[in-house]
Amino acid sequence: MEKSPSDAEQICPTHPAHVNFSIIAIAASAGGLKALSQLLSALPANFAVPVVIVQHLDRKHRSLMADILSRRTKLQVKQAQQGELMEAGIVYIAPPNYHLLVTSQGYVELTQSEVIHFVRPSADVLFQSVAENYKSRAIAVVLTGTGVDGAIGVREIKQKGGTVIVQDSKTSEFDGMPKAAIKTGLVDQILPLSEIATALIALVMGSNADEQ
User: Fold this and answer.
1) Of 7, 52, 87, 163, which one has the fewest beta carbons inside 10 Å?
2) Domain for residue 11, yes or no?
3) What are the pLDDT digits (tens) for 126-174?
């Protein structure tokens, strides 16, 4: 059942006063490249928070996802690096075979701890670290994908007061991950892929979305 997004409880002092959220964490698997391309292409260049992505990838091969996505969005897209400080308007993608976590100070942590749900990177690992460190200032998004990765993390996000958006089954090329997230009963919005960027802009930037 859909719910209205909960109000953020605090404002991150490192962002403009109108920003109630400090980070967006996105999970995707099969069909993710197409979905991410569409979503990121609709975000403005002045987007006010960092975007962190876990896309299930072949752990044995170098990923070209950052290069591909950077050609389809106004935002800078890069593969996340250990210890770097996240910046607003930059998209960070978990590298193959590494879990991606974030600290409360906004730094990236990469780890090769155990495989979760047969995958590394895992959305659950990312969501749990985001929930722990950003609480009500976090937005989690679950896109197309097989399996159940992300559902446990969705529970953590909601327990800490964050907001969850899930791609609907109709527009998901593979709906395993979205359905698993929805089954938690903790999803704020279930949206067609074409409407997710608009929802994120409204939540993060509000009436200031057109400012440059």
Assistant:
1) 7
2) no
3) 999 999 999 999 999 999 999 999 999 999 999 999 999 999 999 999 9
